[in-house]
Amino acid sequence: MHSLSRLSLSAILLAALGLVAGSPLTRAIEPDDAAANVPNAEIRPAIDFALVDLAGNGRDLRLNDRARVRAYVFLSTECPIANSYLPTLNRLHEALDAERVDLFGVLSDRSVTRAQAEQHFQEYQAKFPILFDSSGQLQEALGPTHVPEAFVLDADGKLVYRGSIDDVWGEIGRRKPQATKSWLADAIAAAVDGKPFAEARTTPVGCLVETWTPAESEAGVTYCRDVAPILRARCVDCHREGQVAPFPLESYEDAAKRAGQIVEVTHDRIMPPWVPSASHGKFVGDRRLTEAELSILKRWADGGRALGDEADLPPAPKFAVGWRMGEPDLVLEMPSDFEIPADGPDLMQNFVLPIGGLPEDKLVAAIEFVPGNPKVVHHCLLFLDDSLRARKLDAATPEAGYSRFGGPGFAPSGSLGGWSPGNTPRPLPNGMGRHIRKESDVVMQIHYHPTGKPETDRSRVGIYFVDEPVSEALKKPNRLVATIWASDYGLDIPAGESDYRRTTSYVLPRDVTMVGVVPHMHLLGKSMTATAILPSGEELTIIDVEKWDYNWQDEYYFERPFKLPKGTRLEATAAFDNSEQNPSNPTSPPKDVKWGDATDAEMMFCFFLITTEEPATLIQTVVDNLLNDRNGRKAAGLIR
Q: 333 - beta bridge partners?
C-alpha cells in the first residue's frame, strides 16, 4: 500500500513567480514601468497604435467610439500555465456581451513567428482574437510581468484591473481543483456597470516576461563553458523535444530567452523537482542542484547571458531509443486510448492490465514506464491486485479504466513502484525484488493534467524480473522487499489552522534493512520528517521534507541501504496548512478537514521499503505492521 503515497494534482510546470532584478542588458519589466502602478491611480496607458490579429484583422486600438470595455490577456506559446487558461478564456469570451466588451489575447514573444503563433492557437482552438504584438508596443504600454497576465481598461481607457485570471493557480505548481475567485470576469463586469472593482490588482502566476540582449562573449560566465554543462547534465532529459517538459533547453537560444525564469525556479528549488532536504543520507537519483551550480546560473543571467566560445560547448547528450534498460521480460499496455479533456481538474485514472501467461510467481527487479503522451502524463503508480477486484471497478465505468482520487479503490496485494518525470529506471540493489503472483493484475494509476486542448494517451510499462526462480531467490538473505508504514487516521484539521501537527510511529518487531521511503499527504500538507529512534536512543533522520509539494511526490531509494535493529521506533511528524494562505487549499473559505481519500480530505502516511535476512522475518514484520495499522483505523473509528 505504499504506492498510495505518490499522488499529485498538477501539471509539470516550469514558470517563475515574481521579478528578477537585472542589469540594463537583461531584466524583467519593473514595477515602475508604464502601467505597473496601482490601477486606481487614474492610469490611462498610451495605447495609440493598431495591431493585426492572427486571423488577419486590423485592430485599431486608438479608437473606442462605441465605449467598449477592453480586456487584454498576455499569453505564450510555451508557458503551460498560460496554455491551461485558454479554455477558461474561451468560455469567458462566449459569455461576454460582444456589443460592450472586447477580450483580446496578446502574444509579444519576439522569438515566435506569426506562422508559429497561428499554428499554436489553432491547435488550442482559441475562439477569441489574438493580437500579434510583433514590435512589443502593447507589452511596453501595459508592462506585463508574467504570462498569463490580464489587464482591464474601462470605456474611458482607464486601467481598472491587472493580475491573474482567477485563483486556480495560487503559486507555481500549486493548482486547485477549481477556481474560487474569478477576478478577470468580475473586473470586466464591474467595468461594464461603471463600478469600481475592489480587488484592482492581484499577483499574476505564470512564466516571467523577460527582455535581454546578448553580452559580449568575454564575460566571466558563458553559456558554452559554464551553463550548457549544467543544463545538459541536469535538465535536458525532460527539457527536449517530445518529452514531458513544456519547452526545450537544448540550445543557447532556448536557455538565453528563459534565463531569469531558470534562475527563479532553480533557486526556489521548484526545479529540478526534488523535495527531500539534504539532512539525510544520499538517495539514488538526487536531482538537487548544488549551490555552485545555482550561482553559475544566476551570474550568467545577471551578467548578460554571453554565448562564449563554442569550442567549450560539451557534446549534446545521447538518449536511448526504445527501452532504456533493454527489452523487458514483460510489456503491459493500456487496452485503448484514453481521452483527456482540454481543461478541468486533474484526473487520476486507473487502468487494469492482466498479467496473463506467467508460468510461476516472479520477483520484479525493475520497471520502466513509457508515457504514451508526455504532455499530459504527470506520474504513474503501479499497484498489484491478486483479488481481481479492480476488474469489477473497471467494468462499472463506460470509459477506459476508472477514476479514483487517493488509492486505487481496493487493498493492493503489493506494488511495483512508479514513475515521475526525470526518473531513470534502475533495478533494486543487490538482486532484490518485489513479489508478484502469476495470477495478479497490474493496476496502472496515471495522473493526467489537462494542457488546454484535447489529448489522448496510451501508456505502457516494461517489467524486468530477477534472473532466477523465486524459490531460489528467497533462500538468499535480503532478496525480498516489502512495504510497511506509519500512519495517522485521526486527522482533524480545523479551518484556518496554518500549522496543524501530528506525530505517528511504528516499532520494528524484527531487525530490518531500510531500502527506501515514501512520505505522503494531500493538498494541505506542509512538511514531513521521518526519523529512526534506535533502542540506544540515537536518532537517525530518514527523510526531511521541509516544503511539501503535492506535485512532486516520489519513491526515494537509499544509495546505501542500512540496517535498523529490533525495537527501533520509526517516527513521522507532519504539519498541515488549512488556511487561506495555502495556495493549494481546495476550499475557500477553508473547512474542517478529516482523514479520507477525496480531493478535499487529507492523509498522513510514511511508507518504508524494507528487506530482512530471512523472508519469513519479513513476512512476520509485514503482518505485525498490518495489525498495527488495523488498530490505528479502529481507534479512529474507521472500522469496527
A: 460
Per DSSP (E only), the strands in 94-218 are 101-107, 130-132, 146-147, 149-153, 159-163, 169-171, 174-175, 207-208, 210-212
The Cα–Cα gap between 11 and 634 comes to 36
Please state, rounded to an integer, the average pLDDT across all residues of the chain: 86
Q: Is 312 within 8 Å of 225 (Cβ atoms)?
A: yes
Give buried/exposed letters for 83-113 (b at 16+ CB in 10 A, else e).
bbbbbbbbebbeebeeeebbbbbbbbbeebe
Alpha-carbon gap, residue 168 to 183, rounded angstroms: 11
- Among 172-181, 262-271, 273-282, the least confident range: 273-282
Instruction: Give the pairing type, strands 569-576 and 441-448.
Output: unpaired
Distance CA 65, CA 46 (A): 17
- Per the document, the length of the chain is 640
SS3 603: coil
Residue 127, pLDDT above cutoff 90: yes
Residue type for 385, please?
D
Q: Is the peptide bond before 341 cis (omega within 30 degrees of 0)?
A: no
Query: pLDDT digits over 214-255, tens only?
Result: 666 556 888 988 898 889 888 998 898 877 788 899 999 999
Peptide bond into 148 cis (omega under 30): yes
The set of residues, in sequence order, having a beta carbon less than 8 Å from that of 383 and lying 6+ positions away, is 3, 390, 408, 412, 414, 415, 416, 442, 443, 445
Could you tell me which residues come within 8 angstroms of residue 256 by beta carbon, excluding any fewer than 6 positions away? 212, 214, 223, 305, 307
2 CB-side CA count, 13 A: 27
| pLDDT recorded at residue 7 | 30
Q: What region, left, alpha or beta, does residue 431 occupy, with left being phi > 0 and alpha being psi -120 to 50 degrees?
A: left
pLDDT of residue 32: 40
Beta bridge partners of 443: 352, 383
Span of 87-101, 301-315, 561-575 with lowest mean pLDDT: 301-315
Q: What DSSP line would sit under 473-524, residue for residue?
A: HTTSTT-EEEEEEEE----EE-TT-S-EEEEEEEE-SS-EEEEEEEEEE-TT
213 CB neighbour count, 10 Å cutoff? 11
Question: What single-letter DSSP state applies at residue 313?
Answer: P
Task: Kindly state the percentage of the chain with pLDDT values over 70.
Answer: 92
Tally Cβ neighbours within 10 Å of residue 605: 22
Cβ burial, residue 396 (10 Å; 0-12/13-18/19+): exposed
- What distance lies between CA 464 and its chain's CA centroid? 27
The helix or strand, by DSSP H or E, that contains position 326, with its residue range, turns out to be none
Distances (CA, A) of 593 to 505, 547, 585: 22, 20, 11
- Quick one: average pLDDT of 131-141? 88
Residue type, 277: S
Res 219: pLDDT: 60
